[in-house]
Amino acid sequence: MFKKILIANRGEIALRVIRTCKEMGIKTVAVYSTADAESLHVRFADEAVCIGPPPSKDSYLKISNIIAAAEITNADAIHPGYGFLSENARFSKICKEHGIKFIGASHDMIDKMGDKATAKATMKAAGVPTIPGSEGLLESYEVAEKTAEKIGYPVMLKATAGGGGKGMRAVWKKEDLKKAWESARQESAAAFGNDGMYMEKLIEEPRHIEIQVVGDSTGRACHLSERDCSVQRRHQKLTEETPSPFMTDALRKKMGDAAVKAAEFIKYEGAGTVEFLVDKHRNFYFMEMNTRIQVEHPITEQVIDYDLIREQILVAAGVPISGKNYTPKLHAIECRINAEDPYNDFRPSPGRITTLHAPGGHGVRIDTHVYSGYVIPPNYDSMIAKLITTAQTREEAIAKMRRALDEFVIEGIKTTIPFHRQLMDHPDYISGNYTTKFMENFVMAPPKES
């Protein structure tokens, strides 16, 4: 087992990893930018190393600084969390070259699954259903035009190196393709340094349902059931739940088997997520695989009583998995609490938290790195907390979430708490009748007079 793990991340996920390491008797090293000197992950790690100024490119994305921090503290493993370098094949390879275990996928695996066009071809070979579309990357606009004609409009242009909705364009008719092609390529080049594009049939009224998988060094994998991530804004998830209200036992078995087949086909090692789009007829199609821990992993942990970070560490240390597939016995919902103003087009709201009161009680979990007096820097993702409720039924989990949101007080900044509170009363959410298009018609009711 590892003696010391460096967490190459910040905020709530860094603190989450530190907690499991402490329970396992493993020493921890936090890294931080100068903007995060007062963050809780710095306070609760056994050691902490400053790796640079606030911009991510000079700190959390600077591989040389992170490797140096690992070497001077004698860390024998690095946990990358999510985001930043978690799916960076070069970082995984450099860790291996320096004799440091990367707690995540190998560089070959990240290369294979990180490029969406390659991943799709791999899944086709594995016999996993994929969305009709281009065979690999589109070599030119003329090829894009012919491909769109072949698969039929509407189509979706996607950046092969994309993420977070960047480099994606829905095209409903031929006349709009040229403009979408040019803008998507420009956006992708600016965001990822790669303007490679591919095309898929646009799935109408889709659900975004992902399957959590874990694989070990023997090539065996299992699944830990599904998460429904369909409530999104600009392709960014806002809330997630498990089990999905759209799921049937037959569909769960089919999707679970497909996800395990995908993981075992590529001999996947570690925790990963196979993401699918599911149409209104419950046909499902492989979308992408995330070779890391997900933001929404706590809801899976809650419904099957399973520490996913612990499992990541054990698998990385060579411990084989049980091989058992799981079905949730409870229901859990996660609301991402962001420092954003939902009454003003979700505009970011960094600044000092003057008051914080966290909810509690049975079935309420909060993963956060913030506290009263903490200053949220403007340099990073706006998520500051994850509120998770767990209950016997979906109705009880929603009722518990309403109560917990009413108790959750954060002052000094704007947050998405009012949005989530209204979401929990929305008839389509309550009935489970929502798709990835849900937010297109969601309108915030005005704030109540205090």
Word description of this protein:
With 450 residues, the protein is of the alpha+beta class. The protein has 3 domains: 4-103, 3-Layer(aba) Sandwich (Rossmann fold); 132-201, ATP-grasp fold, A domain (Dna Ligase, domain 1, 2-Layer Sandwich), CATH 3.30.1490; 207-441, D-amino Acid Aminotransferase, Chain A, domain 1. The protein has helices at 11-23, 40-44, 63-72, 89-97, 107-114, 116-126, 141-151, 177-192, 249-265, 297-304, 308-316, 394-407, 417-423, 427-431; strands spanning 4-7, 27-33, 47-52, 77-79, 101-102, 155-159, 168-171, 197-201, 207-215, 221-233, 236-242, 270-278, 284-290, 331-338, 340-341, 347-348, 351-352, 355-357, 364-368, 375-376, 383-391, 409-411. Strand 1 (4-7), helix 1 and strand 2 (27-33) form a beta-alpha-beta unit. It starts with a strand and ends in a 19-residue tail after the last helix. The mean pLDDT is 95.
Structure summarized in a few sentences:
The protein has 450 residues and is an alpha+beta fold.
SSE inventory with pairings:
Blueprint: E1 4-7, H1 11-23, E2 27-33, H2 40-44, E3 47-52, H3 63-72, E4 77-79, H4 89-97, E5 101-102, H5 107-114, H6 116-126, H7 141-151, E6 155-159, E7 168-171, H8 177-192, E8 197-201, E9 207-215, E10 221-233, E11 236-242, H9 249-265, E12 270-278, E13 284-290, H10 297-304, H11 308-316, E14 331-338, E15 340-341, E16 347-348, E17 351-352, E18 355-357, E19 364-368, E20 375-376, E21 383-391, H12 394-407, E22 409-411, H13 417-423, H14 427-431
Parallel strand pairs: 1-2, 1-4, 2-3, 4-5
Antiparallel strand pairs: 6-7, 6-8, 9-10, 9-12, 10-11, 11-14, 12-13, 14-21, 15-16, 17-20, 18-22, 19-21
